[in-house]
Design goal:
Elements: H1 21-29, E1 36-43, E2 46-50, E3 58-61, E4 72-75, E5 82-85, E6 91-95, E7 105-110, E8 114-120, H2 127-140, E9 143-149, H3 158-165, E10 172-175, H4 184-188, E11 196-201, H5 207-215, E12 240-243, E13 249-252, H6 267-271, H7 273-279, H8 296-302, H9 308-338
Parallel strand pairs: 8-9, 8-11, 9-10, 11-13
Antiparallel strand pairs: 1-2, 1-4, 2-3, 4-5, 6-7, 12-13
Length: 346
Amino acid sequence: MRDATLRRIDEPCDIRLGWTDEALARWRELGTPIATGRVSRLDRGWSSVLMSLDRPPVRARNIGADVAVGDFVVVGDDGERIEHVLPRHSAFVRRASFEGNRAEAHTIAANIDVVMLLHGLTSPPNRRRLERELVLAWDSGARPVVVLTKVDLIDDPAETLSALHDVAPGVDICVASGITGVGVEALRSYAADNATIALLGASGVGKSTLVNALVGHGRMATADVREGDQRGRHTTTASELIRMVAGGWLIDTPGVRAVSLWSSGRGIENAFADVFELMDHCRFRDCKHDEEPDCAVNAAVADGRLDPRRLLSMQHLVAEEAALEAEQRAQEKALDRRGVRKPKKP
């Protein structure tokens, strides 16, 4: 055994790590006491695992295990590898970016309570990207929150806030500045009771600066912005679970250039709740919203209540999801023919 931290322990799990009642119940089902912790970082086959806030993380091999930052895991008695990943109560998942793995999932963060979707106010927010992010966030099982950063660099965010309420119905939209601290306390409140927040945003939206403000110290490196558009350079290279000084946890993720869907449960329905509400009033249940009579969706487009680009975006996402699901089914059949068994998801 390489570290006394990995001995079987008599005390319960350190609930300060963000343990939920559900996770604790799963832990007990394995037969306590047992060496269990939370993954704080992944590095090429190795996981850094926090066993307690009072001890430094241990490093264990994760080869063959489907592990993500934020997972609760069981470390073997010898301290060499992760033996078990507890079932997740939420996971932010997108399609793998590598073209050869289009039918493979990439879990960005696990066991999260709130997903904060960051967009910079110094350039017009990308509404279509935000719609995609909201689909993924709703499907994660966590609560989505939109955060508009760099509020210190503009005169008035009111117009942008008003415009985005139509894109994110029913979702909290906050403004914040990692430089001046405006809005930071409001964001910290989402991590009450040791909850976990995940931050997602494109490179250059001020994410690392906001992370430093949220955790209360200069944890993440930052880069200078370009004078032309006030966009920074990508500085986060790996997802990491970080403890906030005031309590709670934050998972910072590398800047995501492409937001690719994985598999939607009710994500599209939640992200486009306004459009689905209109659909309930169409004359025909299978209305395609094309030229059918008494189509409530087309009526809303005609009188200006619904942006036609939003309807088109939803239709594209539905088609993309259907195509991805077909790819997944084809891959599963191919694996079955070769006798390959896919690993179970936590």
